[in-house]
């Protein structure tokens, strides 16, 4: 068991990038983490890590040992998960991440409904708009609202939404309504700063995707703040329809430039491929697909 523990410590050092980060995660001292690492290298008779004051890197032996150790540790974890499922009780803690707006608006009711069916599953949800590295193991599942997917992950579509451009009636009355995307350069834009498209807004013209650099006057990494700013007449915003649904229903925002919309954005549940997927993960993803199809009206 000492070897298994030392392997776990070694893999987390590689994934998190420092002894200190692993010590914080495992609630040990940095000295203890160093001790575990020294024990592992002594038992193997080879150095696994190159250490400098600024960074840690894998030796040639360390690279081979990491990938094999990671595979073995995953096999142990999957074996435990698979065996526990034989008892037909879906239980455990499921760690998920979702974008702030989508998670805040839609995920809590979905989680409530899921836990009514699976009361022994605990769910830890973080809300971040930034990219989450599933390989680091901090979450089991990441919800993405995107038109681009990274390689190496399983992505199951749970819903769809439109990406639209919106302004308040008050803004349009004061500044006019742009009829063509070229006219946006004369308007005050409210820009979401945390997307794969960086400083650009995306549209479709004659079947081709076009990027336009936003002439922004207010920017944020929080969609709710941008929707509120647009409703106050501060400018024009581009956002998924799910984020502005309440403002549209209340007449505080209206959609503009509808003819230049890109195709629907998919909302995905993403996770790493594993030989045996834990029941808490598969039941949750399957539940989300059914839940959003039947109860929220997100298309």
Automatic annotation (TrEMBL):
GO biological process: DNA-templated transcription
InterPro entries: LysR-type_TF_proteobact-type, LysR_HTH_N, LysR_subst-bd, WH-like_DNA-bd_sf, WH_DNA-bd_sf
Pfam families associated with the record: HTH_1, LysR_substrate
Domain HTH lysR-type: 1-59
Keyword Transcription applies: yes
Record's keyword annotation contains RNA-binding: no
Annotated GO MF terms: DNA-binding transcription factor activity; sequence-specific DNA binding
Alphabetically ordered keywords of this record: DNA-binding, Transcription, Transcription regulation
Family from the record: Belongs to the LysR transcriptional regulatory family.
The protein's name in its UniProt record: LysR family transcriptional regulator
